[in-house]
Amino acid sequence: MQFDYFEHDADVGVVGRGATLERAFVSGAQAVFSLITRLDDVQPRERVDVEFEEADAEFAFVTWINLLLARAQENGLVLGKFELERDGDRWRGRAWGEPWRADMERGIDVKGATLTMLSVARADGGWEARCIVDV
Amino acid sequence: MDMTRVSAIDPWTWTVPLAPGESRHEVKLYGSRELLETMDDKVLEQIINVARLPGLVGAAMTMPDAHWGYGFPIGGVAAFDPDLGGIISAGGVGFDISCGIRCLRTDLTLHDIAPRMKLLGDGLFRDIPAGVGEGGHIRLDVPEIDRVLSGGARWAVEQGYGEPSDLEYVEENGRASGAVPASVSVLAKKRQLGEMGTLGSGNHYLEVQWVERIVDQDAARAFGLFEGQILISIHCGSRGLGHQIGTEYLVSLAKAAGRLGIILPDRELACAPINSDEGQAYIGAMHAATNCALANRQILAHLTRRVFAHHFPGRHLETLFDVSHNTCKAEWHEVEGRRRLLYVHRKGATRAFGPGHAALPERYRAVGQPVIIGGSMGTGSYILAGTAESEKRAFSSASHGAGRAMSRHQALRHWQGRTLLKDLETRGVIVRTRSMRGAAEEAPGAYKDVERVAEATERAGLARRVAVLRPKVCVKG
C-alpha cells in the first residue's frame, strides 16, 4: 500500500509514499481522505483545482493537504481521486469527488495537517511524506 | 512518562529540574503520580519546549488531563507578557479555536425523561447536524459570516437563536472583543458558509446528563444544580473556519518566527511577538474564530431547546455556562505583587476564575466560575468551581476533559463501533452516531479515568468539585 498511518495520542499520523515527490503527496492525500470515507465508494463526478507556490517541500505537503480539505468543505464534496504536478515552486493539483450520499461510510472529520512529525524525504528509492493530521 | 525525569513539589505538583547549562523557565505538571505515569513522554518534551519561548511569565504548565498534542501539549497553559517580547502561538491555541462546552440546565429530572429517552435521542440526532459530511440547515453568505465573526453569540441571539439572558452566562458576554474579520481569509469564510449550527466530529458531542451527586452544596445552589437534575452539554468549536485559520497561520507564523529571530524548538510552536504585525493579525483572526464558535454553540443550544420543547413542552433550558478551552485571552493577573496584562494560552484547558472575579456573572461571583470537565460518552463528567488558589497556581486554569489515554489507532484495535454502542445501551446510555469508526475511537476505555482527573484538579488547587454527572443520551459527531 502506498499510504499508511502511525500512532499519535489524540490525532492520527499519515504517511504517503511514491516513486516521485508528487506521487508521495497524492498517496498522502489518499491516506487523509481514507479517514473520512472509503475511497472506492467515491464517484469522480466533480473536480476541484488547487494551485499554490511553495519552495519548501515539507510546507508544500501540509499546504496541499490543507487546500484539499478546504476545497472539499467549501464545495460540500467528499474527494477520492487526486493528481498533482510540480513546476519548480509552483504546484498544480486536481481532485475529484461527489457530494455526500446517505449510503457512504462516515469516518472521521480531518481538521487539518499539522507541522508535527512533518517530514518529506527520500525512502526506498522513492519519496515519503508524513505528518500528524488533527482530527 | 519517564518519572525519573520529574520531581515532586507536592503529591499533585511536579517539576522538571534544569539540566546543567540548560536555560528555560520552570515547568509545572499538575496531577497524581498515577496520571503522570500514563502520559506520553512527548507531553514532557512539548511543555519543556514551551518553557523556552520568549516572554513567558511564571511556569509552563500542564493540567492533569494533559496528553500529547502538536506544539503545545493538550492541557498546556502558558502566559506571555507582550512588554517582555512575549509571543502568541497558533500551536498554543490549536486548530479548533475556541472549542468549548455550552452547558444547559433544565428543570427536568431523570424520572421525567426516562420514558422518552430513545425518542429524545432520535429527535436530537435528527435535528442536530453531527458528524463528517453533515452540513447545517443554515446557509450564510460571506458578508453575513463577517457579522458572525464580529458579533459572536450576540449575532446568533439577534437572529432569533436563543435568548438574550443566555449571553450573561457566556464568556465575555457572548462576544470576543478584538475580532478582525479582515484577518480571516476568504477561503476560511467559505468553509463556514454551510457549517453554522453543526456539531462536527471527533471528540465533539451533545450529551444529555443527569446529576448523580452534589459535592459542594453552596456552589451547586449558586449554579442551580440539584441531584437527579437533567443537564445538556454541547461540546464543539469553530468548525471549518477555525480549522482554516489554524492551518494558514500555523504555516505563516512558522515562517515569520525565523524572520523575527525567534528560535523555535518545534516548528509547531509557530509564533510571533504579540506586539508584531504578524502576531496582531493572528490575534484578530483568532478572536473572530472565537466569535464563530460562540455563535455556533448558541445556535446548537437553540436547536436543542426546540427538541426538548417538542418532548417536554413548557420546561425550561437555561444556560449554566459556556466556556472555551482552546484559546489565548488577554487577562490581568497579579504576578509578584504587580498587576500585569498577560496573554494566557490555554490549549485543551479551561479558564477557571475564582470567587469575586469581576468577569463572572453576579449569580456565580461568590462561588467562582463553573468549570466543566467533559468525560467520555460512557463514564461521566464533572462540574467544578474556580478557586482563588488557581490564580496563583495556574493563572486561573483547570482541566477540560478526561484526556485520551490511548491513541485512536489503538482504540480501533480494541473496540468495534456497533458492539460498543450495544454495550453502552445495556448500561443505560443511548448513543446516536453516523460513524461506527468514530464511536470506536471515542470508546470510554480510550480515555483517562475522569474521576482521577477531577480529583487531581481539586487536589492541585485548580478548581473544586461541585457535581458529578452521568450520561444518558449522547449524540456523537
Describe the structure.
The complex is a heterodimer of chains A (135) and B (477). Chain A is an alpha+beta fold and 135 residues long. Helix content of chain A is 25%, strand content 41%. Chain A has 2 helices and 8 strands; from the N terminus they run ββαβαβββββ. In chain A, α1 (21-36) runs parallel beside α2. By secondary structure, chain B is an alpha+beta fold. Chain B has a single domain (3-476), classed as tRNA-splicing ligase RtcB, CATH 3.90.1860. In chain B, a hairpin with a 7-residue loop joins β15 and β16. The longest helix of chain B is centred in the middle third of the chain and has 35 residues, at 277-311. Chain B is globular. The model of chain B has no long low-confidence stretch (mean pLDDT 95). The interface between A and B is large, with 36 and 53 residues.
Attribute tags:
heterodimer, A: 135 residues, alpha+beta, Archease, Possible Chaperone, Chain: A, domain 1, 25% helix, globular, B: alpha+beta, tRNA-splicing ligase RtcB, 7-stranded mixed sheet, 15 helices, 33% helix
Averaging pLDDT over every residue of chain A, what do you get?
94
Largest sheet of chain B at a glance?
Answer: 8 strands, mixed
Radius of gyration of chain A: 14 Å
The residue-averaged pLDDT of chain B reads 95
The helix count of chain A comes to: 2
What is the percentage of strand-forming residues of chain A?
35-45%
* Domain module tally of chain B: 1
Which structural category do the helix and sheet elements of chain A fall into?
alpha+beta
Q: Mind telling me the CATH class of chain A? A: Alpha Beta
The CA-CA distance between the termini of chain B, in Å, is: 31 Å
